[in-house]
């Protein structure tokens, strides 16, 4: 089931980790920024057999990990793709951290949607969409708290630089807003695609179960 998309996801994670490790701007920052992506990868690997996700989830997770790896390697305030966006859009600051927080909502929203649909009695509709966005916003707020605690404990004199605020006193609020926008757009724009991806997963699972049943019956005759 979804072996190809799953293996492609793992390959992307391995390549992105290896490439961005040689050498990053700051290893402690690289470790912290990439740790969440690696933890999510470990969770997807650990639950693969009893709860395989749809192909869409693995595809989005791979893209999200690349964004995390780029931000971890250069830091979000200094990421080259952000400077390209800055020049293109005429912005006053590198917006790559906003891209990262957009993805922080866009990708997890689909993961949460799949978990809720497959493990609860919740039906597709407005409440499902609301809960997906709410969970992503809650995680985004908790992430901001984690960053705050780390700065207080380890970087008390480098808070703004370490957080990549770039002089924006409303940086945390802007990050959470981008997460909310990302989650909302994912629910509105990808739900139909996600439904088809989950249906394909269900068909593959049913086919495998039927094949296993036939093999067992054949072995007993």
Key phrases:
single chain, 221 residues, mainly alpha, 8 helices, globular
What would your notes on this structure say?
The chain is mostly helical and 221 residues long. The protein has one domain. Helix content is 79%, strand content 0%. α2 (27-46) packs antiparallel against α3 (55-74), α5 packs across α6 and α5 (96-119) runs parallel beside α8 (171-219). The longest helix has 49 residues, at 171-219. The two termini are 28 Å apart. Mean pLDDT is 86; it is low at 209-218.
Q: Please provide the ordered H/E string of secondary-structure elements.
A: HHHHHHHH
3D shape: globular
Give the CA-CA distance, first to last residue.
28 Å
Gyration radius, rounded: 20 Å
User: What is the strand tally?
Assistant: 0
Structural class: mainly alpha
Helix share of residues? over 70%
Output mean pLDDT: 86
Total domain units = 1
Helices and strands, with pairings:
Elements lengths: L2 H18 L6 H20 L8 H20 L5 H10 L6 H24 L6 H29 L4 H5 L7 H49 L2
Helix pairs in contact: 1-2, 1-3, 2-3, 3-5, 5-6, 5-8, 6-8
């Amino acid at each position: 089931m979804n072996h190809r998309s799953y293996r492609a996801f793992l390959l992307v994670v391995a390549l992105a980790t290896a490439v961005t490790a040689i050498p990053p701007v700051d290893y402690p920052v690289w470790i912290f920024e990439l740790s969440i992506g690696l933890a999510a990868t470990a969770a997807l690997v650990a639950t693969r057999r009893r709860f395989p996700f749809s192909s869409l989830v693995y595809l989005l997770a791979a893209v999200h990990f690349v964004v995390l790896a780029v931000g971890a390697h250069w830091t979000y305030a200094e990421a080259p793709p952000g400077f390209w966006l800055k020049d293109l859009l005429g912005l006053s600051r590198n917006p790559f951290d906003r891209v990262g927080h957009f993805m922080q909502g866009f990708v997890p929203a689909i993961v949460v949607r799949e978990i809720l649909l497959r493990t609860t009695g919740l039906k597709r509709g407005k409440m499902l969409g609301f809960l997906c966005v709410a969970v992503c916003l809650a995680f985004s707020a908790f992430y901001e708290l984690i960053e705050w605690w780390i700065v207080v404990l380890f970087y008390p004199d480098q808070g703004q630089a370490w957080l990549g605020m770039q002089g924006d006193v409303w940086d945390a609020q802007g990050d959470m807003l981008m997460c909310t926008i990302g989650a909302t757009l994912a629910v509105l724009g990808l739900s139909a695609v996600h439904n088809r991806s989950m249906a394909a997963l269900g068909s593959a699972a049913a086919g495998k179960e039927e094949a296993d049943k036939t093999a067992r019956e054949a072995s007993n005759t």
